[in-house]
Design brief:
Length: about 475
C-alpha cells in the first residue's frame, strides 16, 4: 500500500502553507512563532523549492540557486530564523566579467564599482555617484513609468559597456530586462551594491535542514510529497479548507507559496474572483526560466584563480534575446570550492543560463536528450578556457532545463523568478478577493530571489497574523 504522507495530520489548522520555497518556509516559521497552528505542505520529497540541491554518486552535492544574494539575508535570517543560520552567511569576493567589451574582477560593492566605472570606463565620479544615489533612493511608491533603459540613458547615454556591467548580473539574478520598470532594477541593484554578494557556507542542504529543525521546534507540522489539488472557498468567498493527496483539511487561512497564477487559476478557480481581477491576473507575464549544467570534478582535481562567480559572454553587447537563446552565448559559472561545504573535498562548477520555456517544452524526447547533451558539451568547451583540461578532470556532468524546473517546483513554464512586475499587485490584493487567502513567493522581480522571497514571507505572514488575531488580543 502507498505510504500515507498525511498520517496523523489534524482535521483543522489555523493556517495551511502551500509550498516550501523560502517564502513558504519563512512564512510558516513566523506564523508558528506568533502562536498559530501551521501545516506546511510540499509536493516534492525535499523542502526548499528553488533553494534546493541534489546528490550524485561519488559524493557530489550540487546547489541549484546558491550563487549569491545581498547582505540583507543576514539580518532577515537573524530576525526570522536563527543566529546560527545568520552566522553561516559569508561574502563572495571574486566576481569576474569576461566578454568582448571588458575583462575584470570586482568585489561587487559600490566602492569597487565606482572605482571601475571611473578609472576603466572613464565616467566622471560625480555621474557615477549620482547614479548610485538615485538608484539607492528608488522605492516602491515612486513613479513606475521609467524603464531601466531610460534610467541608463539618463546617466550613461550611449555607453553599452557600462550598461552591460550594471545590467548583466541583475538579469542573471532575476531575469529582468531593460524594458522593466527602473525601480525593480534600482531596488535589487542597490541591495547587492550595499555590501556585495553573499553565500551560505555549508550549502543549501545545510541551510534547509537547519530551517526544518527550527520549524519543528516551533511546532510546524511539515508534510512532504503532499500535492495540494484545491483550495476550497465558500459562496461568500471565504477560505474553508485545502484538498491534498485526496484529503480535506480545514483552516482559517491559506498562505500559498505556489506560483501566483497557479494559485488563482488552478488551486482556487477563476469563477471565485471578480472578472476584472481575473483579467488582471491573466495578463501577468511569467518571468523566464533557466538551464544549468552541473560539473563535478574527480577527487583530487581542482581549479585555480577562477573566482567565485564568472559572468561569461561571447555576445558583442548586452542583449536579452541572446541571453535567453538555446544557442547559448552567455553563461554564469559558479565555482564551488571544498570550503563551501566544510568537510567535503569536492570541487564543483555550475553553469547557469537564462532560458525560454517554449524553446525546450515541445522538443520530442530524443531531440530533448540530444539538446541537453549539446548544452553539456558546449558548456565544457567554454569552461576549458578557465579550467584548462577540464574534460580530463570530470567525474560527473548533467544538465537541467526549464522542463526540470517546472517538474520540481510546479512553477508554470518553469519560471525561475516568478512573474514580471505586474504580478506583485495581483499577489498583494489576493486577500481582497478571497477572505483568508494570501500569497508569498517570487513575484514582481522585487520579491524574487532568496532575500526577496524570505522578506515577502515575513510581510505576508504578518498580515495573516493581523487578520487572525482579534484586536483585543493584539493589544
Ligand atoms: C537556476 C536558478 C538560479 C537562481 N539563483 C539565485 C541566486 O543566485 N540568488 C538568489 O537570490 N536567487 C536565485 N534564484 C531564485 C531563487 O531561488 C528563487 O527566487 C526563490 O528561491 C524562490 O522562492 P519562493 O518562495 O518564491 O518559492 P519557490 O522556490 O518557487 O518554491 C515554491 C514551492 O511550492 C511548492 N508547490 C507549488 N505548488 C504546490 C502545490 N500545489 N502543492 C504543494 N506544493 C506546491 C513547490 O514544489 C516549491 O517547493 C535562482 C533560481 C533558479 C531557478
Amino acid at each position: 500500500m502507498a505510504k500515507d504522507f498525511l498520517k496523523g495530520t489534524k482535521d483543522s489548522y489555523d493556517i495551511i502553507v502551500i509550498g516550501s520555497g523560502l517564502a513558504g518556509l519563512t512564512g510558516a516559521n513566523v506564523l508558528a512563532k506568533q502562536g498559530h497552528s501551521v501545516l506546511l505542505l510540499e509536493h516534492h520529497y525535499q523542502l526548499g523549492g528553488m533553494a534546493t540541491w541534489f546528490k550524485r554518486r561519488g559524493g557530489h552535492i550540487f546547489d541549484i540557486s546558491l550563487h549569491g544574494f545581498p547582505v540583507g539575508m543576514i539580518k532577515s535570517c537573524r530576525k526570522y530564523w536563527t543566529p546560527e543560520i545568520a552566522d553561516s552567511i559569508v561574502q563572495l569576493k571574486g566576481i569576474r566579467f569576461e566578454n568582448p567589451q571588458f575583462s575584470l574582477r570586482t568585489s561587487f560593492t559600490r566602492e569597487d564599482f565606482t572605482r571601475i566605472i571611473t578609472e576603466k570606463f572613464q565616467i566622471p565620479y560625480e555621474t557615477v555617484d549620482q547614479f548610485f544615489s538615485y538608484a539607492r533612493g528608488m522605492n516602491f511608491y515612486d513613479d513606475q513609468s521609467m524603464t531601466t533603459r531610460q534610467l541608463f540613458e539618463k546617466f550613461f547615454p550611449g555607453r553599452s559597456d557600462v550598461v552591460r556591467l550594471l545590467m548583466e548580473p541583475i538579469t542573471y539574478a532575476n531575469g529582468s530586462t531593460l524594458e522593466d520598470p527602473a525601480i525593480t532594477y534600482g531596488i535589487v541593484f542597490s541591495n547587492f551594491m550595499s555590501k556585495g554578494v553573499f553565500t551560505f557556507k555549508g550549502g543549501t542542504d545545510a541551510l534547509v535542514l537547519k530551517m526544518k529543525d527550527e520549524l519543528e521546534r516551533n511546532g510546524v507540522d511539515i508534510r512532504i510529497r503532499s500535492l495540494v489539488e484545491k483550495v476550497e472557498v465558500d459562496a461568500q468567498r471565504r477560505v474553508q479548507a485545502v484538498h491534498v493527496n485526496g484529503k480535506r483539511i480545514a483552516c482559517r487561512a491559506v498562505l500559498s507559496n505556489s506560483n501566483i497564477k497557479s494559485t488563482i487559476f488552478n488551486l482556487v478557480g477563476a469563477e471565485h474572483f471578480d472578472p476584472a481581477y481575473v483579467e488582471e491576473a491573466s495578463a501577468v507575464r511569467l518571468n523566464n526560466s533557466s538551464c544549468q549544467v552541473y560539473i563535478g570534478l574527480k577527487p583530487g582535481e581542482g581549479f585555480e584563480n577562477c573566482g567565485d562567480l564568472l559572468f561569461h559572454s561571447e555576445h558583442e553587447g548586452f542583449d536579452i534575446e541572446a541571453m535567453l537563446s538555446r544557442n547559448v552565448s552567455s553563461r554564469t559559472f559558479s565555482f564551488y570550492y571544498p570550503e563551501t561545504r566544510p568537510g567535503s573535498d569536492r570541487w564543483l562548477i555550475v553553469s547557469s543560463t537564462n532560458a525560454n520555456f517554449k524553446d525546450w517544452a515541445e522538443l520530442p524526447e530524443a531531440e530533448y536528450e540530444a539538446e541537453k547533451k549539446r548544452l553539456c558539451e558546449t558548456t565544457l568547451d567554454c569552461l576549458d578556457q578557465y579550467v584548462p583540461g577540464v574534460r580530463d578532470k570530470i567525474d560527473w556532468v548533467e544538465a537541467s532545463t526549464p522542463r526540470t524546473f517546472q517538474h520540481y517546483t510546479r512553477h508554470l513554464q518553469g519560471a525561475s523568478f516568478g512573474t514580471k512586475f505586474e504580478g506583485l499587485k495581483v499577489s498583494q490584493t489576493l486577500p481582497e478577493q478571497i477572505h483568508g487567502l494570501y500569497h508569498a513567493g517570487s513575484v514582481g522581480i522585487i520579491m524574487s530571489g532568496w532575500l526577496g522571497a524570505v522578506n515577502y514571507g515575513v510581510i505576508t505572514s504578518n498580515e495573516i497574523d493581523k487578520a487572525l488575531t482579534p484586536a483585543s488580543a493584539a493589544v
